[in-house]
Write a structure and sequence with these properties.
The protein is mainly alpha-helical. It is built from two helices and two strands. Strands 1-2 form a two-stranded antiparallel ribbon. The relative contact order is 0.23.
Length: 55
């Protein structure tokens, strides 16, 4: 997240991690982890579905 220039989609996070983003089954667990980080207060989810840091 901190390496990106701004808010990112779960697909972009998957690309940065080297995950095959063409397969939805590989991308959904990453989205779940991002949402878990939102619940814990580490990230913020914007209304358009993008994720950003809390700071």
């Amino acid at each position: 997240m901190r390496q990106s220039a701004g808010p990112v989609m779960a697909r972009q996070v998957g690309e940065m991690l080297g995950v095959d983003v063409a397969m939805r089954a590989k991308l959904e667990p990453r989205r779940g982890r991002l949402i878990r980080l939102v619940d814990r207060g580490w990230l913020r989810k914007l209304p358009d579905g993008r994720f950003t840091t809390r700071l």
